[in-house]
Amino acid sequence: MPLAVPRLVVSGFGGESGKTLVSLALLLAAGRGGLAVRAYKKGPDYIDAAWLAWASQSPARNLDTFLIGDAATRASFAATALPDALNLVEGNRGLYDGVDSRGAHSTAELAKLLHAPVILVVNATKVTRTAAALVLGCQRLDPQVRIAGVILNHIATARHERVLRESIESLCSIPVLGAFPRLPGAVLPGRHLGLVPPLEHPGAAGLTTLLADTCARCVDLPAVLAVARQAPPLATPAVPPPAAAPLAPNVRIGVVRDSAFTFYYPENLEALEAGAARIVPCSALDGAPLPPDLDALYIGGGFPETHAAALASNRAFLDSLERAARRGLPVFAECGGLMLLARSISWQGNRYPMAGVLPCDVEVCLGPPQGHGYVELRVDRPNPFFSPGQLLRGHEFHYSHIAPAPAEIGTVCEVTRGVGCGNRRDAIVVHNVWAAYTHMHALAAPEWAAGLLAAARRFAAARA
Fold it and tell me: Whole-model pTM?
């Protein structure tokens, strides 16, 4: 049956346009008005998704056609979107920016897939009528993309706003639905991987009122909601048979989750729970050792470098992690998890000892990213989680690199797209530990959850 859910896509001309700020403000203002909200992030992004989850008070899912395909993307949206609500998708980069010159897998293609109207956020810094030319170009590049309105950002004066409104509305025949003033940079401060995550933002508690009030004052929220309600019914995939009753948990999988390690897709944890795993929360910062009786451990990405001193001082946790790995505990670590398992992290001129599970050290660089974008791997050596020959898709975004080079340590994957650990290799395997720069998404690689669950069951059986 067609799905009638109000929805819209918030996009822009490129990065730094203010898409996240506007999306958060819309979600907070709509929620404060009593409307249910759901949030989504286009593409592989943990930090913006964390902020969207913060504003919507529910998991924000990533919609990524490159990783999981069109059908699974639409199914994910259809399964979680709400009727009589604001279902908001924040785009990434510019509206038409994709993986190639044709804009494949762009925000525009996602908007068409979901039949969702687009609101363009225009960074109005030092521009007036030229903004109308940019909006007009976006309208004409692909008429199948329905650009339903504009929200201005970084407005300097009332005259600045008036000239922009008149130019865009007269030349582009779409409404300007709001105009945000310049807000202090500390509202949503950034650093080397993007925005500072909500758990580390010192003023997150007061941000709700600021953004909701600014939106109420500067945006025609009823008009924005009317745009979302104009989205046509969405044809949904065939309804799958009713899911079987959840299996009783028979393995315990620890998940390291604290302000240093926050990069987890909701679907990954759900896939483990659907496979009869009990998720055991762990912290690498609270001074406690690794919980006993774990059957496997999952360490996602995050910012271990900004927490390096605190991590290095928590020897109870690091030493218990090293002992557990030596005993054969299956450990799946992504990016920040790799850094935690290394001998040390070098950051801003200081060297911090880590768990010492991997035969390498990590240096965090202050220049351009060492790896950024989608990754494709071919598993070519035995390991605890995947069969040789399997092809895996994921993504990476890291400013660090390892030493020594991957050729001198045991890696099990050829990198056919991306960087990984370098030298076209990724995934260091020691004992039953997998540590890679590649982040996995359970919907893109169902083998991931199956492999981790199988390794956990083997370990549990051997221990018993």
Answer: 0.94
